[in-house]
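Input.
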Amino acid sequence: MKKNAKIIEIKGIRGIFMVLFIAACLGAGFVVFPAKVAVFAWNYVALNYIALPTISLWQGLLLWSAIAISVYIINSKSKALSYRSTAQLSEAEMRMLMDRIKIQAEARRLNNMLMKENFEKKEESKDIENKDISEKHS
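Output.
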């Protein structure tokens, strides 16, 4: 293989215009033309056979993209979703899991008790401060 091999060479403004022309042709051929075909087909069927509203070019573009993505997903070799059954837990694993759940529940209960206790102490200290302030002002 040559070390100085050039795959794509864009020279000057003419090369930039050529790249833009190629991109526009690809966009027209793979995006706009199928969208126009989808709009024509939808509007023909909607007006002649079924009482459906007509669609614009943007809606045709969305319809074409939905069709293209659906065909791609259906024809792909690997599936995006797969279903399989999970392995059952053994008795020892189940006991360990239940023990962990019990420990977490106990910790949550103790934490709630401490939070209530701290809240009650703060309320009592506020009441005492309010009484002291009211007694000083009386």
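The mean pLDDT is 84.
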